[in-house]
């Protein structure tokens, strides 16, 4: 079941506590009917006493998966490590306008799909990757020379504004993409550019974190372009994605 953005916006504004999902605000009947259909399909049952849809398990994880994918049908291992397919990498580099000699940061490098492509274009690429196995593969199997490859949680790294470009595909779960992108933006030097794959929810969610991100894009004269549906299908996920382009 694919879900329209107006329904996703309602779900993203719902109050989720434990196994309960309570809708907020007044919805017209037609919109409520569509929202209710999604909640029921996802396993939520209306409970009059709780004034909420009640799920068997943790409702937050289920809701987050639905909002990210725009679908009720979600694989069990959704949103862990999903490498960037070649077509996505090509578009990232096209938007980033990578040139020889540039200093580039890839703060969620995975196994190197983006970092290697930037290095092959002549950039000096530094990488951060939280999973040790991925970091080892990124550094040791690289077909071209990379700069530093550090195994660390990127969000704990103190920003140094020294990079011409940040090119990234961060984790998405629990709005981690916004956290990573806004942190990574601080690593750009004046005149630099950040280009990032993100969950499509950054275009329609209405919470404070998303609003702060949207404000950053607007203030910097950035833009967000949608990626084609199923751009990450070959990597094992149907998550809906966009690319954010944000100047320093």
TrEMBL record:
Residues 99-200 form the Methyltransferase small domain. GO terms for molecular function: methyltransferase activity. It holds the Pfam family MTS. The keyword Lipid metabolism does not apply. It comes from the Bacteria. InterPro entries: DNA_methylase_N6_adenine_CS, SAM-dependent_MTases_sf, Small_mtfrase_dom. Keywords: Methyltransferase, S-adenosyl-L-methionine, Transferase. Signal peptide: none annotated. One of its GO terms (biological process) is methylation. CDD domains: AdoMet_MTases. This is Methyltransferase. The lineage of its organism: Bacteria, Pseudomonadati, Pseudomonadota, Betaproteobacteria, Burkholderiales.
């Amino acid at each position: 079941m694919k879900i329209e953005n107006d329904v996703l916006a309602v779900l993203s504004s719902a109050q989720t506590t434990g196994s309960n999902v309570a809708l907020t605000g007044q919805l017209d009947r037609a919109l409520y009917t569509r929202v209710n259909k999604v909640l029921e399909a996802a396993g939520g049952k209306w409970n009059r006493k709780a004034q909420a849809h009640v799920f068997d398990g943790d409702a937050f994880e289920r809701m987050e998966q639905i909002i990210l994918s725009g679908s009720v049908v979600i694989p069990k291992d959704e949103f862990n490590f999903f490498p960037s397919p070649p077509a996505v990498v090509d578009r990232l580099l096209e938007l980033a306008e990578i040139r020889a000699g540039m200093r580039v940061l890839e703060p969620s490098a995975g196994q190197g799909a983006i970092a290697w492509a930037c290095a092959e274009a002549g950039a000096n690429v530094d990488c951060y990757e939280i999973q040790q196995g991925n970091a080892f593969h990124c550094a040791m199997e690289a077909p071209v020379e990379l700069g530093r490859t550090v195994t660390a949680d990127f969000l704990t790294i103190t920003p140094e504004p020294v990079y011409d470009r940040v090119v990234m595909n961060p984790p998405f779960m629990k709005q981690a993409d916004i956290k990573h992108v806004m942190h990574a933006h601080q690593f750009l030097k004046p005149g630099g550019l950040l280009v990032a794959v993100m969950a499509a929810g950054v275009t329609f969610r209405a919470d404070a974190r998303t609003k702060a991100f949207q404000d950053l894009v607007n203030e910097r004269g950035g833009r967000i372009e949608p990626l084609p549906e199923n751009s990450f299908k070959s990597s094992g996920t149907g998550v809906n994605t966009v690319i954010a382009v944000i100047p320093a």
